[in-house]
Structure formats: structure tokens, C-alpha cells
Amino acid sequence: SREWHLTARPQGWPKPADFALREAAIPELGPGQVLVRNLYMSVDPYMRGRMNDVKSYAPPYQLDQPMHGGAVGVVIASQAEGLNIGDHVLHGLGWREYAVLDAKHSITVDPEVAPLSSYLGVLGMPGLTAYAGLLRVAAFKEGDAVFVSGAAGAVGSQVGQIARLKGASRVIGSAGSDEKVRVLVEEYGFDAAFNYKSGPVAEQLKKAAPDGIDVYFDNVGGEHLEAAISSLNVHGRAALCGMIAQYNATEPPAAPRNLALVIGKRLRLEGLLVGDHGDLKEQFVEEVGGWIREGKLHYRETVVEGIDNGVEAFLGLLRGENTGKMVVKLAD
Ligand code: NDP
């Protein structure tokens, strides 16, 4: 079985030489364990943080050890009651072809109910992040004008659509290409969208939201957060979900420089961790699953083929080569 190891801690942008795809023996199954053939694995922005040797909400990857991450696979051997050969499971031992794990650390998923990859994206962790972040952390209410950055990605594309479906007065998104901007408006029903690479974010946001915004969902940080603080209306709320613009930075960010506005406008800026919101999962799957079945919520995935391309997929995610959730397909 092949698995990806981190072999050096990246300085700035990770490079292929910081990783190695290595052969490893498959351990014997113990009681309560299953052997899973991974079919899809997730690559996610938070993994960049786990490559640094710093204390954070997710522990750092160890050098010369397999990396971890979300994956969906099929059980091919079982010593666990309740899990049989042929069952599909979601679990945390991605970045490898085969995984041996305790059955209690997996969740059974049904490929008849939804495509397997969607359990890593629109119906999985990123989807719940969007749902809980917008509705609970940002306390979205009908009539709010919402701005989301990283809007063509897994989390962002869902934030904008949930806001639209829940009665936002205006939904604005930013993304890194004209094609992504087109998808936001034409496929996802955003009222306005702009390419943040085409000009200053603050100017483009003011044009897209002439009456200001009530909610900002931050996936990017930096210049985007500064622009949002300027455009937020009195008593506006921001859910701080991610700051991908600085994950590879070697210098601290220059922005936001306008934090003092938070006082006068009585803004609320609140950090968000999806792990705090597991209690919303059932409600989220029911509501979002329903919207998908009814054709009201759209999603895309960017699927990279083969374990060999796992690191390239991760680097591509950081470069913005994905529209919607980036996943790696390992086997049929
Ligand atoms: P995405 O699918 O959004 O992929 C990442 C995207 O980030 C890229 O496609 C790229 O799109 C964009 N990007 C990369 N660099 C920059 C930059 N310098 N400035 C602006 N945009 C950039 O990933 P996810 O949906 O999985 O995650 C989105 C955010 O949410 C991340 O910040 C992530 O860390 C965070 N997150 C937080 C969670 C939590 O619990 N707090 C849980 C899950 C995700 P483009 O072409 O538009 O540049």
C-alpha cells in the first residue's frame, strides 16, 4: 500500500520535494478493526497548517509518517461487528491507498443516497462549515446582505447559496478568475461577484454592494477582511472561517488596518471551527440534501485522479485550480 509522508516542513509555499509517496506494509487487523480500500481522499486548506510544527487546533503532521485527512472507502476485511465487506465508510486516514482503523472511528455512508465524494464536500465537513458558520456563527437572518470570499470553493459556494435560499437581500462573492465569477452568478445565483485579482477588493466590493453588507463570511483574510470591515453596516457580523491568503506567507499580513471601525459600527467578528457544530449535522444533511435533490443548490467538484497526484492536488488547491471541492480519486 502506498501512502504520502511529509518529509520536510515547508517554508512558505510547499514544494513537491517536501513530500514522498512511500510503500508501507498493511498491518494485521485487530479486534474491532476494518481494512478499508480508500476510493476518494480529501485535500483541504487546513492541512497546510498541520505541516508546520506549531500547536494549533489540529496537531502537526509528523515527519516521515503518513499524513491524515478525510477519506471515503470500501471495507475489504472486517474484524468489527456491524461493518461488513462491501460497506462504505468515511474516516480520517486519507493520504494512503489502504487504511486499517477501529470501526468506531468511521461513519457508514451510502453511495445510493449520494455520490461518495460528496461526503467529503457538499454533504461533509466543508458543507457543515458553511451551514453552521453562516446560520449560527454569523447569525444570518432573512434580509441580510452577505459577502463571502473564496466563493467558488467548497465552503464559499455553499455559503452563498444557503444565504440566497434563506432569503438574503443580496449575495456577493469574490473569486480568483473570471470563469469562477461567471459560475457564481450564472450557476449559483449570486447577485454580484468579482475577480479579486482584477483590482482592489475594497473598491470592487463597494461597487458590488452599494448599500453595504450585514454579514461577511471570511475564507481569505488580509485585504478581503479589511474591505469587508469597511463595507459592513452597523451591527454587522463576520464569521472568520479561514485566512488562506496568509497560509503560505512568511511575513505577517499587512491588513486589516481598519480594525478601529469595529468599535463605531459595533461589529461582531467571531472565529469558527466546524468541530464545535457537530450537533447541527443532522439538520444540515437533511436541509442541504433536500435542496440538492430539488435542484435548488448546485455544487461542483474538481477530481484529480490517482494517489500519485495527491500532493499536486493539494498544491493545486492552494493555487486555486479547483472549483468546488477538490478531491483525489484513488480507485473505482
Ligand atoms: P476551497 O475549495 O475554497 O479552496 C481554496 C481556494 O482558496 C482556492 O480554490 C482559491 O480560489 C482560494 N485562494 C487561494 N489562495 C488565495 C488567496 N491568496 N486569496 C484569495 N483566495 C485564495 O477550500 P475550502 O472550501 O475547503 O476552504 C475554504 C476556507 O475555509 C479555507 O480558508 C479553509 O482553511 C477554511 N476552512 C475552515 C474550517 C473551520 O472549521 N474553520 C473548516 C473548513 C475550511 P481562488 O481561485 O478564488 O483564489
Automatic annotation (TrEMBL):
CDD domains: PGDH. The keyword Oxidoreductase applies. Keywords: Oxidoreductase. It comes from Streptantibioticus ferralitis. InterPro entries: ADH-like_C, ADH_N_2, ER, GroES-like_sf, MDR_fam, NAD(P)-bd_dom_sf. It comes from the Bacteria. Transmembrane segments: none annotated. This is NADP-dependent oxidoreductase. Residues 15-328 form the Enoyl reductase (ER) domain.
